[in-house]
Write a structure and sequence with these properties.
Blueprint (H helix, E strand, L loop, with lengths): L2 E21 L2 E15 L4 E5 L13 H12 L7 E2 L5 H6 L6 H19 L3 H5 L5 E3 L2 E3 L5 H14 L3 E5 L6 H11 L4 E5 L9 H5 L9 E2 L8 H9 L4 E3 L6 H10 L4 E4 L1 H4 L2 H13 L4 E3 L6 H11 L22 E2 L9 E3 L10 E2 L1 H7 E7 L1
Parallel strand pairs: 6-7, 7-8, 8-9, 9-10, 10-11, 11-12
Antiparallel strand pairs: 1-2, 1-4, 1-16, 2-3, 5-14, 13-15
Helix pairs in contact: 1-3, 5-6, 9-11
The protein binds 2-succinylbenzoate (OSB) and magnesium ion.
């Protein structure tokens, strides 16, 4: 089929979270979300979302850098060009163009959905997804006390989430994890995510987490580190999962070769899009490394992309792909994303493209700025 993008509408919307989300490196009350609308020459259009946050506390990119990069450098790599397949977009965006994965990913993933929409097939089908349902978990932000966390975790477990991810930081870790494990029992899937809160002097401390039978420990050390994670993994029984550090397939290969972790969290927005995500997925499958799809508090638009990715066969662990109501009092898509009481989210494989309708009136209401790029 192929596509040719004639126009891109870029918007920033603000969407209040139903509860604040605190991680070791910052807190968010409301998301600032950059949305793209790609228009094909034949009139077909599709929405895409950047995962960048308001502050550079997860990665160097932010909503503002992504805005600038797409406007100045990214859009012109695609506009007016005929592409036979979205797999060709990755190279078009990366030739003599370093970094800025989140900006590139929004454009690149949009091209995949545009192609799916034009072919009249689901995004899941286009990328090789095989599952009709995916298993989800919940990521719970740092709470004030272990008691508050336990209450939250218990409620989530009762709702059906089979995996509980607990955000941790120094002083908010051992007691908190112990309390959740104690409350939910030995069988429950419990994990911690440190978002880089520890360093090379903390190995003894981190090794104490082996006592909690965690499913994994996500990104304990620096956001751009692989080597020190290898040293830590040698000291710990608990599987380490890398998130921030896996910026592309090269970092994934290093993780596997150095044994710096045993699990990979793939966020397509972090690695520059679907082509890179598919390459990491394939590499991980060959190395027997389980992968799962992380989240960045996406709106229902970004969620559609993550759900499609998580339908690939190697995504064998529950993703951070909670239903709409966990984040928003009202999402920007219909139907909203839901899960059943087993924690399963339906992949809309019977619908073309994203599989959800975007509420354009609502988006216009929430828009703080808009730019049309031709
Ligand atoms: O580290 O996985 C992370 C949210 C923002 C920034 C980083 C992370 C997260 C989450 C949220 O854990 C997961 C979700 O979208 O539900
Ligand atoms: Mg993480």
């Amino acid at each position: 089929m192929g596509f040719q993008i004639e126009k891109i509408v870029m918007r920033e919307i603000h969407l209040p979270l139903v509860e604040p989300f605190r991680i070791s490196s910052g807190v968010e009350y409301e998301r600032r979300i950059l949305l793209l609308e790609l228009f094909d020459a034949d009139g077909t259009s599709i929405f895409a979302e950047s995962v960048a946050g308001a502050e550079p506390n997860y990665a160097p990119e932010t909503v503002d850098t992504v805005w600038l990069v797409i406007s100045r450098y990214g859009a012109k790599r695609l506009l007016g060009k005929k592409f036979d397949h979205p797999r060709d977009v990755h190279d078009a965006l990366n030739h003599n163009f370093r970094g800025h994965n989140m900006a590139k990913a929004a454009l690149e993933m949009g091209c995949w959905a545009l192609e799916a929409q034009k072919q009249g097939i689901s995004l899941s089908h286009l990328i090789g997804g095989t599952r009709d349902k995916i298993v989800t978990g919940i990521s719970i932000g740092i709470q004030d006390t272990p008691e508050a966390l336990v209450k939250r975790a218990k409620a989530a477990f009762a709702e059906g989430y089979p995996k509980i991810k607990v955000k941790i930081a120094p002083g908010k870790d051992l007691e908190y994890l112990a309390a959740v494990r104690e409350e939910l029992g030995e069988e429950a899937q419990v994990m911690g995510d440190a978002n880089n809160a520890y360093g090379i002097d903390d190995f003894d401390h981190l090794a104490k987490m082996d006592a909690f039978n965690l499913l994994m420990l996500e990104q304990p050390l620096a956001w751009d580190d692989v080597v020190c994670h290898a040293a830590l993994q040698e000291r710990m029984k608990t599987p380490i999962c890398l998130d921030e550090s896996i910026l592309n397939r090269d970092r994934a290969r290093e993780m596997i070769h150095l044994k710096a972790g045993r699990i990979i969290n793939i966020k397509p927005g972090r690695v520059g899009g679907f082509t890179e995500s598919l390459a990491i997925h394939e590499m991980a499958q060959k190395a027997d490394i389980p992968v799962w799809c992380g989240g960045m508090l996406e709106s229902g638009v970004g969620r559609a992309y993550n759900v499609a990715l998580a339908s690939l066969p190697g995504f064998t662990l529950p993703g951070d792909l909670s239903p709409s109501r966990r984040y928003w009092s009202q999402d920007i898509v219909t139907p909203e994303w839901t899960m059943d009481d087993q924690g399963l989210v339906q992949v809309p494989r019977d619908k073309p493209g994203l599989g959800v309708e975007v509420d354009l009136d609502r988006i216009e209401d929430l828009t703080d700025r808009k730019e049309i790029i031709k």
